């Protein structure tokens, strides 16, 4: 998921996406540990997506706090 489409989501939707990706990462790591994971590059892709989600969440939080100070 790209950052542009993430910026269109609300904070609640972003938090739900974060939870979903964390769960997927857990499942991928588990599959990797027991030797069932075929596409190990998916772990890195999910970690990068989680970072994108958290970056957009932080941007939105900073924008809200800046708007509140005005």
From TrEMBL:
GO terms for biological process: translation. Keywords: Ribonucleoprotein, Ribosomal protein. One of its GO terms (molecular function) is structural constituent of ribosome. Signal peptide: none annotated. The keyword Ribosomal protein applies. The keyword Membrane does not apply. Gene3D superfamilies: 1.10.287.310. Coiled coil: none annotated. Belongs to the universal ribosomal protein uL29 family. NCBIfam families: L29. This is Large ribosomal subunit protein uL29. It comes from Aminobacterium colombiense (strain DSM 12261 / ALA-1). The lineage of its organism: Bacteria, Thermotogati, Synergistota, Synergistia, Synergistales. The gene is rpmC.
